[in-house]
Amino acid sequence: MRSLVAFVLFGVAVAAALPGEKIVGGYECRPNSKPYQATLNYGYHFCGGVLINDRWVLSVAHCWYNYDYQTLDHDIMLIKLYHPVSVDSFVRPVSLPRGCPPAGMECVVSGWGNTLSDGVYLPLSLQCLDLPILTQAQCDTAYPGMMTSTMLCAGFLEGGKDACNGDSGSPLVCNNEVHGLVSWGTGCAQSHYPGVYTKICSLLPWIESTMASN
Predict the structure, then answer these.
(1) Which of 9, 18, 28, 56 has CA 20 to 30 A from 142's CA?
(2) Which domain holds residue 111?
(3) What gap in Å lies between CA 12 and CA 81, rounded to an integer?
(4) Which segments of the chain have a pLDDT < 50?
């Protein structure tokens, strides 16, 4: 896999959640409950990310300008911060996974993306959505021939709840471990089309070796 490491030229902020409005079908995160959440921005939010230690943020490669959209495979990038963050109760890394998540595991995705499935509304406050990991068979049925070993899907086949535009790169956290990053899907919150996430457990060797060599 080709290494994609960004030495930050744009803004990366790790921020506490503030009160306000949703990921489609979600709810406002409790303030300061997601101290690992990051925003990528050029003066405006365009993608999410997740702090995994005091120098590194994980996000998805399609948020960068040089990504191959043909397969959407290996949709991951590491961002090395110019300066380490000060870790406290408001800014704190999330753990990398110790294994792959089983189907049915309950997780939470958080982000500042669009909260409408058929329009545009970008919230000022961090939004959360509780959702389960789906089976490989459910993923393959929804996206025949498109799922790879670096992807998992999560959400609700009946639709109505999902991550959306602007949530790309935002973390899917299960039992205090980051297991996924918002990657792609068909629309937002559409029935029969759950969200697809970068599968962190399948990319751990790359993550660990890239951080060690940079």
Answers:
(1) 28
(2) 5-213
(3) 8
(4) 1-3, 6-11, 15-22, 120
* Catalytic-labelled residue, pool 59, 110, 168, 170: 168
Structure tokens at 108: 């939470």
The side-by-side arrangement of strands in the sheet containing 45-51 is 5-7, 77-80, 56-59, 45-51, 37-41, 11-14
| 75 among known catalytic residues | yes
Q: For the chain, how many structural domains are there in total?
A: 1
Helix (H) or strand (E) run with residue 129 in it = strand 127-132
On average, the pLDDT of the chain sits at 87
* β-bridge mates for residue 174, sequence order: 177
- pTM for the full model? 0.88
Q: What three-state secondary structure class fits 11? A: strand
Query: What is the CATH classification number for the domain harbouring 124?
Result: 2.40.10.10
CA distances (Å), origin 43, targets 12, 47, 83:
10, 12, 19
Per the annotation, the verdict on 62 as an active-site residue is yes
Catalytic residue among 62, 162, 167, 179: 62
